[in-house]
Amino acid sequence: MPVVKQNRMSKKPLILITNDDGYKADGYNRLIKLMRPLGDVVAVSTLESTSAMGHAVTMQTPLRLNKIKEEEGYTEYLSNGTPADNIKLGKHLLLNRMPDLVVSGINHGSNAAINIIYSGTMAAALEAAMDGIPAIGFSVDEYGQHPGLDHTDEVILKITKKVLADGLPKGIALNVNIPKKSDKPLKGIKVCRQAEAVWKETYEERTDPFGRKYYWMSGIFLDGDQRPDTDEKALKDNYVAVVPSQVDFTATQLLNTLKF
Amino acid sequence: MPVVKQNRMSKKPLILITNDDGYKADGYNRLIKLMRPLGDVVAVSTLESTSAMGHAVTMQTPLRLNKIKEEEGYTEYLSNGTPADNIKLGKHLLLNRMPDLVVSGINHGSNAAINIIYSGTMAAALEAAMDGIPAIGFSVDEYGQHPGLDHTDEVILKITKKVLADGLPKGIALNVNIPKKSDKPLKGIKVCRQAEAVWKETYEERTDPFGRKYYWMSGIFLDGDQRPDTDEKALKDNYVAVVPSQVDFTATQLLNTLKF
């Protein structure tokens, strides 16, 4: 595998980028373009979408890596892994030192509320944060192949430059969700908590050409969280929602009451 | 697809079971055997291991379901989905009402500390909890195809019976990790917090028969958490570790200090 190390003497920040919509996605390519003036960039993604992979890592099949582009200050790879794999592969096989920043996205579709747990975009950011690397996942609240993205540039650069300058506490990744493009300007940036909202799935039953049944999952998103400081509320009010996020599932409120 | 609904008139608890080691796994079959006297059981798993799938759900390929066994009070299915898919499929396509309990496992290998985020076993339990269903993920701290399991029966039944009787707060799943079988008896059950511990991965490079490089991930587990009430500490002291777990990634300690 053609491992190319970054220049050890470079004073520029080293930025590792991935996403979960595949390497051709508009959001990914826009994020790369935004990051390149800020540092040396290494980008690792996949041929196809790995959306909804959550924090999956690849243990059952061999991982492969191919370099597909190399320019001054920029190297791009394709892998057959998940977004979390891509961060691990980047750290261990593609870089000669820990990156100064991991950015993931721009995801086509919101990762606010419960979506964070299904999100490959945020899995990549959290994977980096767990290893002490400042990390940000960017998503825009519009699904589809070509979401409006030009309203996201300013806020992405603002947040990224702040994190490059100040760092983040160990273990913290920012879950940044940007409202869908509209004719109204963004109102600003709000630091929020993850909303308690759920998906109610439905399954569409189809029959394949060989007469066998199969199913596609879809669903509707139900946000019943009335708290004033949630990411869903911020998005609805046309603010950029930033949730400082960490991997601690402990329901600490029960530590003293649960007994066996 | 041969959907068989449970008997609507049954007074027995309805228990949905899955795992991530495949339907032949010792832990899964032991868990089914333990649950059957407690209620009507529907089990859904996969042909092969889906270990380390995290909270992945299947969006890119069609889902399939096949009934492979039907006995009084017991139905078993195979799917081609992830553990989280299996809970969603179970709820929507296989049961005529919400289950009273979801149990997942017995996983071959610990899901304590950071392992919870990679764990299909716990993804299934959390998926149920997010929908308000009491849920428990059981794991034994021994990897391999045939871990010692007979020491787990008593504690699994004790915890399960308590959850069936008392329920769990909405959104809570129990992450239950049981020490590896040894000649010392288990000391008891401790309610714990998730330890801050990390994996340091290594990648083994191999060459396939066609001359192409590929990689297998492995790693070592580093537990540097000195707090007295972690799941890792409990396991080391030969206690069963129970972490009440929920899906809220918000780093609430930063909500008032982070500014943009």
Q: Topology, pairings included?
A:
2 copies of one chain form a homodimer.
Chain A: E1 14-18, H1 26-35, E2 40-46, E3 65-71, E4 74-79, H2 83-94, E5 101-108, H3 115-118, H4 120-130, E6 135-140, H5 153-166, E7 173-178, E8 189-191, E9 197-207, E10 213-223, H6 231-236, E11 240-245
Parallel strand pairs in A: 1-2, 1-5, 2-4, 5-6, 6-7, 8-11
Antiparallel strand pairs in A: 3-4, 7-11, 9-10
Helix pairs in contact in A: 2-4
Give an account of the 3D structure.
In chain A, 22% of the residues lie in helices and 29% in strands. With 260 residues, chain A is α/β, with parallel strands linked by helices. Chain A has a single domain (14-196, 227-247), classed as Survival protein SurE-like phosphatase/nucleotidase (Stationary-phase Survival Protein Sure Homolog, Chain: A, 3-Layer(aba) Sandwich). In chain A, the strands form 2 sheets. In chain A, strands 3-4-2-1-5-6-7-11-8 form a 9-stranded mixed beta sheet, sandwiched between helices. In chain A, α2 crosses α4. The longest helix of chain A has 14 residues, at 153-166. In chain A, 51% of the residues are buried.
Oligomeric status: homodimer
Tell me roughly what share of residues is in helical segments of chain A: 10-25%
| Percentage beta strand of chain A | 25-35%
Name of the CATH architecture of chain A: 3-Layer(aba) Sandwich
How confident overall, as mean pLDDT of chain A?
A: 93
- Uncertain segments of chain A: 1-6
Largest interface here, residues on each chain?
A-B, 76 and 77 residues
Instruction: Classify the fold: give the CATH topology of chain A.
Output: Stationary-phase Survival Protein Sure Homolog, Chain: A
CATH domain class name of chain A: Alpha Beta
Number of strands of chain A: 11
The number of helical segments of chain A is: 6
Give the CA-CA distance, first to last residue of chain A.
52 Å
> Biggest β-sheet of chain A, characterized?
9 strands, mixed
What is the CATH H-level superfamily of chain A?
A: Survival protein SurE-like phosphatase/nucleotidase
Morphology of chain A: globular
